[in-house]
Structures are given as C-alpha cells and as structure tokens.
Design brief:
Oligomer: heterodimer
Structural class of chain A: mainly alpha
Order of helices and strands of chain A: HHHHEEHHHHHHH
Structural class of chain B: alpha/beta
Number of helices of chain A: 11
Radius of gyration of chain A: 19 Å
Helix content of chain A: over 70%
Mean pLDDT of chain B: 84
Number of helices of chain B: 14
Radius of gyration of chain B: 26 Å
Order of helices and strands of chain B: HHEHEHEHEEEHEHEHEHEHHEHHHEEEEE
Largest interface: A-B, 44 and 46 residues
Number of strands of chain B: 16
Largest sheet of chain B: 9 strands, mixed
Distance between the termini of chain A: 37 Å
Strand order of the largest sheet of chain A: 1-2
Shape of chain B: globular
Number of strands of chain A: 2
Strand content of chain B: 15-25%
Shape of chain A: globular
Low-confidence stretches of chain B: 1-22, 42-52
Distance between the termini of chain B: 57 Å
C-alpha cells in the first residue's frame, strides 16, 4: 500500500520536473513560435544563480530561487533586443540557428566562469516517512510549485490586459498593431517572461540535480517534445503533455529500468505526434 | 609565415620616385632581401627550438591526446587534457625523448563517441603520430582502439575500467574492477552489511563492473539484492530510490559516471537514505563529485583509488605544485589525470629503453616491466595483462569535502582473467590479439 502511494508521488514529481523545465519554452515557442535552443542555458543560468547565491552569499534557498527568474529575465531582455527582435515572423530555422549559437556562447561563458565542477546545494526541508519508505519533502513540494506556477500563468494570460495583448500580438501581430497594440514592447515582455520561467525552473531544480554548465542540455530535448506534443494550447497543452509523457516515463521506470522509461517516453511522443499531429490540444476549443 | 620587410611596395623604381629616395632600385632590392632573410632566420630561431637541450637536427616526435574537453564528460576530460599538455611540456624541458622534443596533438571529442572513431581514423592516417594517451569511457576506448590498433598506433588508457582489454598495442593505466572493488566489497561486508544493491551506468563499464561486483560479493559471502542500470543522461532517480527502499540493502555499490549521475547522491540524501545505507563506489570522486555535492550528502561514502591528492610522497608533492602553478583554478586532483602523467612517462621509459619509437620494440620494452615512481607510488606494468600493478587506497569523504585515507593495500595485482570468461595472456597465447573479452554478465 505504501509502495503505491510512494510510486504515485514519484510520478507526480517526474511530471512536475517536466512541467517546470518546459513552461518557459511553452511561452517562447508555444506562444511566440521562437525556437529557443538556448532554453537549456537559461535553465542553467537560473540554477547557477540559486546555487551561487546560497553558497557564496549565504542567502536563504527560497529567496535565492526567487532571484533566479529575475536574473534570467534581465538576460532575456538583452537577448530579445539584440538577437530575437529581427526574427519575428521569419522562418523557424532562423531563430533556431541564432539561438543555437547563443546556447553555445552561454555554455562556454559558464564553463569559463564556473569551471566544470562547482559546489552545489542540497535539498532543504528534510524527508518524511511513508510506511516503509522515506521521501524527501522537496520532491513533494515540486508538484505544488508546478501547479501554482501554471495556475498563475493561466490567470495572467486570461484575466489581465497584458495577457490579452500578448496572445493577440503573438497570434496576429499585424491586426494587433493596427488596433493600437505596441507589438514590439509586448513581445519583449513575453520573451522576458519565458526566460524568467526557464530560470525559475532551473532554480527550483538546483537542489536535486548536480548543477554544472551542461545541466540544462539534458532537459531541452524533452522540453521541446512536451511543448510540441502539447499542441496550440501552450499552457494547458504543455501541462497535459507533461502529465502523459512524464507519467509514462516514471511508471515504466518503476516497473522496469530507467532505460525503458526513457524509451517509453519517446515512443509515446512518437505515437502522439502521429495520431494527433496538431498536438494533444489540437481540437480543444480553448486555445490556452 | 614569412616576415617581409617593406610590404606593400609595388616596384623599387616607383618607390624611389614617390619617396624621392636617392638610392638605386638594385640597392633597395638587395637591402629588402637581406632584411627579409635576416628577419626570417631570427623569427625561426625564436619560434623553433623551445630548449637548447635538443640536438641541432632533432625532429619532433608527434604524439596525440584524445579527451572529452567539452560536453557531459568534461569533468574528467578537461583536467586530463591539461595534465597531458603539462606532462609534454615537462618532458620537453628535461630534454625530450631520445633527444627529440615531443609535439602534442590535442583532440577534443566533445563527449561524442563518433568523434573518437573519426579522430582515431585521422590519427591512424597520420604516419608521424607514434602514440595516443586518451579516451575516458570504455565505450570511447572501444570506438578508438580497433582503429588505432589496425594502424599500428599505441594507445595508453588512463581511466579506471572494467577489464577485459586484450590488445597487444594497448596499455591500461588505471586500476581495474578487481583492484578496486575487492577492497571495497571486503570493507563493506566487514563494516556495513552483506546485502548489496548495485546502481550502475548503462554502458560497457557499468555492466562489466556489475558482473565483477556480483562475483566478488558472492565470494565474500554476501548477496546482491538488486541491480539498476541508468543511462548516462538520466538525472531523475525517483524510481531508482523507490526500488532501493523496497529491496532494503545494507550497502549500495554505485558505479555512476558523469555529471547527470551526481543527482543520484543528492536525491538519495534528500530522501534521508544515507543515514542507514552505506555507499561504496569505484567511480565516485573522479569528477570531483565531493565538491559539487554538499558535505551532508557525501558523508561516509567510501571510495578506492590508486591516487589521492593527499598522498605524502615527493613525486606527488612536486606534481601537485606544478599542476597548481599551471592551472590555479582547477579543482582537486583525482586518479585519472595522474594516470595520464604515468602513461606518458612509462611510454618515454620504454622508448628510451628500446632506442626507437618503432612499435614492436616499444611494446617489448613496455613488457619488460621497468618500475616507475609516480605520484601514486610505485607502478609496474604486468606484461601478461598490460595493466599496472599499483597501490590501492580506501578513503572516505569527511565534512570538509576532503578525502581521509582509511587503509592502503600495496602493489595490488590486476586481473588476468575476465569474470566468467577466458583469460588474456599478451605474452603467451594472445601475443597477436587485438580484442576485448566481455564477461558473462
């Protein structure tokens, strides 16, 4: 009985990790159609921000995690103005190449600053006993955070004026600007939001993975898969795709081995894209 | 690159007219050529010979190193390439090999196996290169070794590995599973418990090391209650940790490799499991895991290596001083870079004994087993297995992220057989072999 509870919690944690590492990309790629190959590096910058603040400045871990999105947002603003602004509405391959080059640069800068093995931080808050098992509190907090952030984003995009303008500017920039929307300013804010979310994901992940300059690269592929199979509803589609892919990967890992879990995730992604080429949310009425 | 004096002039006569010079065109041309020649000689004199110890007609001996300086395995590759460079410079400063300087060709394989094959082809096609000290994982070694061997290039492999290598042209520097896991298993059975759970990287090293673990644990009277193979790019260990708790072992034998696997120790400690279950590992620390992880996560992990930076001998003190001077920002030194140093020096001794870089003469000289005093103590090549007999130290990580040596076993012999399979005798039945023997897993 306790095994089933622990497995269910573990599934939720895996889904949460997928959500947290994909939300930033959902906004940048899912909404704005900018192929951000540097998404992993923004995760990494967020993770390093948290780690460095806790290690060197003695800041409390929760405050350090909150600082991660701020740093990434600032860097994202610079990146948007310098590299991304000319590319809206152009071919996908243009943004792919630019952001790929950016990811290489950011990765190498990180290696030059931090080296390959820099001190990390452990998970806060201890563990809890469930029957014969013990589970870390932090792995239980991650699903809570993931849900809270997704809910906050949903409210942002449906209830606020910015949210309305952001969706309009992304879906039909010409009509939006005719109606008086400052499309360039709104796109800047949306890109900054996406980078900030990536940073937040990295910061939240930093106590449970080994933070090194390459830490983001193993999450990029899965993030893209999640956003693409999620479909046009960039928020809820990503959430559903995370649930399906993350859930399958974890359950299969529990029953067999990690290798089969990864394989199952890839096979399910292939099947989803084949059966539902518009994504999980292709036929939903609400495209959010 | 030639240095031309007065570049940009079209003709001497034009120049005379433009500048109003009073010298004749012929004199100008003569002066130009003289300046050209003298700068060229001066330039090559500065650039050419790094040390006056070399003989006047010494051509450099070309050697190569292939390591993952970037990518997920750069935690191992970057220090190894740095030590390779440092060793070559050191050898050149003390007169080179046979009076000739060494020229190092560096190849960054970017943690991609296909680049090992490609660069091995390049090296194989390059007639000048005599020897390669390189490769990190067993998989990369198996990608490069057949190509290098076929082209008659020696390969020195500095990593700890799983054993089974049976190639006349390959020399294994690092300790093998028998040398490292035997003291670990013996220590665990005496101090922690008899039930083992194995977490291993999912490639050749992890699988073969697990086969060794199973046979050693059985011999020591224990039992393996579970095995988990984890691909190199996985960092979510939730399922693994749940399965460990179901199996309830006393000891975990961790054969983790690479940056992503460090998350295992972190998540293990986060779930509070490191209070009751001991971890022993023949691979922990090679990537300075004890620096990345927090002290409460690494407390009590027991490792076994031939080299620790705290070893107290004159060779080590000199080596560490030189390394810290050349690379002041580098992290702690672990076993792998030291074996790079040892490899170059053992090759140098063999070439000097053989009197040439001819492949078979050097192999014979290597097999004559001259001892070498490295930073990790005395090492001697075992000719039958092409592996080094070396001291093995058991150590544990303390609260200050340093290693404390628990126990030293002197001059541990490597294995000459592969667990569950045949033996390898490179001076006897296998003296023309170029293969790897896989165990029965």
């Amino acid at each position: 009985m306790d095994a089933i509870v622990v497995i269910a919690l573990s599934v939720l944690t895996s889904i949460a990790i997928l959500v947290l590492t994909s939300l930033g990309l959902a906004v940048v790629f899912g909404l704005m159609r900018i192929v951000n190959m540097a998404h992993g590096e923004f995760l990494m910058i967020g993770a390093f921000t948290t780690t460095v603040l806790v290690r060197s400045a003695g800041v409390s871990i929760w405050l350090a995690i909150l600082c991660a999105p701020i740093v990434c947002a600032l860097i994202g603003a610079v990146v948007e103005v310098a590299f991304i602004r000319p590319l809206y509405g152009k071919r996908l391959i243009d943004t792919l190449l630019v952001t790929f080059g950016l990811s290489l640069i950011l990765y190498q800068i990180a290696i030059d600053i931090f080296g390959t093995a820099s001190p990390g931080i452990g998970a806060p808050a201890g563990w809890v006993e469930i029957g014969r098992y013990s589970v870390s509190y932090y792995s239980l907090l991650l699903p809570v955070f993931a849900l809270a952030i997704t809910a906050a984003l949903y409210l942002l995009f449906t209830r606020t004026r910015y949210g309305l303008l952001a969706r309009a500017a992304a879906q039909n920039p010409e009509m939006a600007s005719v109606l008086g929307v400052e499309v360039r300013r709104v796109n800047l804010w949306t890109f900054v939001l996406g980078c900030g979310l990536a940073g937040l994901g990295g910061g939240l992940l930093s106590p449970i993975v080994a933070v090194s300059p390459g830490v983001g690269q193993s999450y990029v592929g899965q993030a893209f898969m999640t956003v693409v199979t999620g479909g046009p509803a960039f928020l809820l589609g990503t959430l559903s795709a995370s649930a399906v892919l993350g859930g399958v990967a974890n359950v299969v890992s529990q029953l067999f081995t990690n290798l089969w879990g990864l394989t199952a995730l890839l096979i399910v992604a292939i099947i989803l894209v084949r059966v539902l080429p518009d994504g999980l949310s292709g036929s939903w009425s609400r495209q959010l | 690159m030639s240095v031309t004096a007065g570049g940009g002039r079209s003709t001497a006569s034009n120049q005379s007219q433009i500048e109003g010079s009073t010298t004749s065109p012929a004199a100008d041309a003569g002066r130009r050529n003289f300046l050209k020649a003298s700068t060229a000689i001066a330039g090559s004199a500065i650039v050419g010979c790094p040390s006056r110890a070399f003989s006047a007609d010494s051509k450099p001996i070309h050697v190569a190193s292939m390591f993952d300086v970037t990518g997920g395995l750069n935690i191992y590759g970057l220090p190894e390439m740095n030590v390779s460079r440092m060793t070559i410079e050191h050898i050149n400063k003390s007169g080179g090999v046979l009076g000739r300087p060494l020229q190092l060709h560096e190849y960054d394989t970017q943690s991609k196996i296909e680049l090992y094959s490609r660069y091995a082809q390049e090296i194989g096609a390059n007639d000048d290169i005599a020897v390669v000290v390189g490769c990190i994982t067993g998989a990369s070694r198996e990608a490069a070794r057949p190509v290098l061997s076929k082209n008659g290039k020696l390969l020195f492999f500095p990593s700890v590995d799983e054993g089974g290598e049976c190639d006349k042209y390959t020399f294994m520097q690092g300790a093998d599973c028998l040398q490292m896991e035997t003291p670990l298993v013996d220590w665990a059975v005496k101090n922690a418990g008899k039930t083992f759970y194995v977490v291993a990287a999912d490639y050749v090293y992890g699988h073969v090391a697990t086969a060794w673990t199973k046979s050693l644990v059985e011999k020591a009277g224990g039992s393996v209650v579970g095995v988990e193979f984890v691909p190199l790019d996985v960092s979510d260990f939730g399922a693994t940790i749940r399965k460990i708790q179901t199996a309830k072992p006393a000891v975990i034998m961790a054969n983790t490799v690479g940056g992503n696997h460090m998350a295992f120790y972190r998540q293990f400690a986060a779930a509070g499991l490191n209070r009751n279950i001991r971890i022993v590992s023949p691979s922990f620390g090679l990537g300075n895991e004890q620096l990345v992880l927090a002290p409460e996560e690494t407390r009590g992990i027991v490792v076994a290596y031939s080299y620790f930076e705290s070893l107290n001998n004159p060779e080590n003190k000199a080596f560490v001083a030189a390394y810290r001077k050349a690379y002041p920002d580098a992290g702690p030194l672990m076993d792998l870079p030291i074996q790079v140093w040892n490899g170059w020096h053992q090759w140098k001794m063999a070439v000097e004994k053989a009197g040439s870089t001819d492949l078979d003469k050097v192999v014979a000289a290597m097999e004559s087993a001259t001892p070498f005093q490295g930073p990790n103590g005395r090492i001697v090549m075992d000719p039958v297995s092409h592996r080094n007999i070396q001291d093995i130290n058991l150590a544990t990580v303390n609260a200050k992220r340093e290693y404390e040596i628990l126990h030293t076993q002197k001059q541990v012999h490597p294995s000459r057989t592969v667990v569950g399979a045949e033996s390898c005798d490179l001076v006897g039945k296998d003296k023309n072999s170029h293969k790897m023997i896989l165990p029965k897993t």
